[in-house]
Structure formats: structure tokens, C-alpha cells
Amino acid sequence: MRCSNKEEISSTAKLVYSVTLCKEEHPECNSRVSAILSALEKNHLTPKFRGSEIIQLQNYKTATFEDIANKHLPPLTKEKYSVLEEGVDGSGETHTTDTTFKESLVSAGAGISLVDYVVISAQVLMHGDVFYDDPDVFFLSIHQDGILPGAGKIDDIGCGNGVGTTLNLPLPQFSGYFAMQTVMYQAIVPCAQRFKPDIILVSAGYDGHVQDPRSKLQFMTLTYYMLASGIKKLAKDLCGGRCVFFLEGGYNLESLSNSVAESFRAIIGEPYNSAEYDSSHFVIMEPYLGARQVVEKIKQLHSL
Predict the structure, then answer these.
(1) CB 261, CB 43: distance < 8 Å
(2) To the nearest 10°, the Cα dihedral for 164, 166, 167, 170?
(3) d(CA 302, CA 187)
(4) Region of poorest pLDDT, from 129-133, 150-154, 213-217
(5) How many angstroms separate the first and last alpha carbons of the chain?
(6) What is the pTM for the complete model shown?
(7) Is 54 exposed, middle or buried (CB count within 10 Å of its CB: 0-12, 13-18, 19+)?
(8) Domain range for residue 77?
(9) Which of 158, 154, 177 is nearest to 166 (CA)?
(10) Do 296 and 304 contact (CB within 8 A), yes or no?
């Protein structure tokens, strides 16, 4: 079903999503959204086929600073709000403009409690401009080793009161399902269990897929299904199921749309259904030793 923030969301809803378009000239363009919506329709993962089980939010209003501050634990300070409100250059790979923060307020007004939608680069986060010294925000980044110049290093774990609340997982080139499953259950899960979040926000980038032109990782749709399933379970166990996914990268339209569809399937608790698509891709042997070394280093740094 489709609803606005003036209507109640059915208690039978397993997944709620919304759609926002962006500039066509940017790599994260509207054609990605169209491809995803087509895949969801093809896989019967829309309100048309699922009724109140899957809901699309529409016509939601812009949130104010007071709306966010009242629902933010601990309270969002005016200082942090000002930093986020300044806006950023939109020329980078992640689609951001001088109006991004205002647009994020629209998202925050969708009626989902405890959602803090901040569009900000990993580089800024790593240098402590927002959350690096904040003990109340646990920031986790999974990325290809060396792909974030000067940032995302495994030794960057936070500073001051925030030491231990930043977890960087730089995976070796050609890492795939094995590496991701290893770090998920040996690093991410125990860190999350120790932190006990009130809500989990996921910047869901699908450019780690083996078919994507922008990385040298070997994720499959099954990898993203596993990730979404694991995160959903963490949210259920730790914070009452409160979890929000925000679409980030992913530039091969076929792998992106199939991976998002499998993420939807994982969130609503249905079996993985893209084995035929995954089997058509050629992959090389994963760097098992390198992945294990990352996990062992994380365990040492974070006392796991």
C-alpha cells in the first residue's frame, strides 16, 4: 500500500520505503532508481503485489530542527546541526549538493522515529568533524582497502570519548562472500552487541558487486542478501527492529537492481532467489588470508 505521514502504517508492514530522484548528470542518477523499481516490480516486491506487507511512503513533509532534536538521543546540538546545514560540494561520487541537508529534512519528516539522515562523506567522518569523538554514535565503514585516500584506515578507531566507536573494515581487493561473512559475524556483530544501538542506519552501497565498474571487490547478490539478513537480525535483537537503509553507490544497473531486490527479500524474511543470476558471473579466488588478517587486527584494536 502507499501512504503519507498523515496515515498510520499497518502493523503488518514488514518493509517501508520511499523514492527520491536526483540529478541526471550525476553518476547516482535517476536511471538507477528506474532500474531498481523495475526489478522490484518484476520480483513482486511492491505494494501492488504485497498489500500492507510492503509500504511506499509518499507526500511526507519536511522535518524541522525541533522535530529531529525531540526524537534524537542524546539531543542533537545546534552546533552539529549547523555543521550539517552548511552543505557540501556535489561533484563527488556520492550525490550531495548545497540543498542535500534540506532534502534530508524531508526524509526525516517521513514519520519514522529516531531516524537521523545525514549525507556526509566518510572522509569527513574519519577526520572527526562530526562523530569521530562522539561516544553515542558507532560508525562502521566497510570498503575496499585503499579506496578512500587518507581515510578509512583500520587504525582509525575514534578519539577522545569516542575511542572505539569507529570501526573501519578495509577489505583486500577481490574480497567477496567469504570475507564479508567473516567480518560480519566476527567483527560487526560483536561490536554492535557491545554498543547496543537505539537504531541502525545503513548507507547501502552496492558498488562492491563483482559486475560494478568502480571497485575490485567480488560481492554477489547473495552477499547483499546475507548482509541485509544479518543487519535485520541485529536490529531485531538490539533495538526493537529499528533499522533504515539509504541507497548509496552501485553503477551497474543490473547488479544494483538485483541486489536491492534481494535486500528487500532479506528484510521481509523471504529466501534468497537470485542464484541463477549470481552463477553467471566469473570470480577469482578470494584473498582468504588477507580477510582473516583484517579480522584479527580488528579484534586486537577493539578488544573483541
Answers:
(1) yes
(2) -130
(3) 9
(4) 129-133
(5) 43
(6) 0.82
(7) buried
(8) 2-301
(9) 158
(10) no
For residue 228, what are the contacts with CB-CB under 8 A and spacing of at least 6? 245, 262, 263, 266, 267
Q: From CA 187, how far away is CA 181, in angstroms rounded?
A: 10
**How many independent structural domains does the chain possess?**
1
Q: Are 90 and 98 in contact (CB under 8 A)?
A: yes
Q: How far is CA 33 from CA 90, 260, 266, 291, in A?
A: 19, 10, 19, 32
Q: Tell me: the pLDDT tens digits for 195-219?
A: 888 888 888 889 899 999 888 899 9
Residues in contact with 92: Cβ distance below 8 Å, sequence separation at least 6, in sequence order: 121
110 Cβ contact partners less than 8 Å away, ≥ 6 residues apart = 5, 18, 57, 60
Output the domain CATH number for residue 111: 3.40.800.20
Quote the strand ranges of 133-219, DSSP E. Answer: 139-144, 166-171, 200-204
pLDDT, tens digit, 9 for 90 and up, residues 252-301: 999 999 999 999 999 999 999 999 899 888 889 999 999 999 999 999 99
The 10 Å CB-count burial string (b at 16+, else e) for 205-234 is: bbbbbbbbebbbbbbbbbbbbbbbbbbbeb
Which of 40, 35, 60 is closest to 50 using CA atoms? 40
Which residue(s) pair with 202 in the sheet? 245
Nearest-5° Cα angle at 290, 288 to 160: 135
What residue type is 217 in one-letter code? L
Q: Hey, what amino acid is at 38?
A: S
Cis amide linkage into residue 287, ω under 30° from 0: no
Q: Distance between CA 276 and CA 256 in Å, rounded?
A: 16
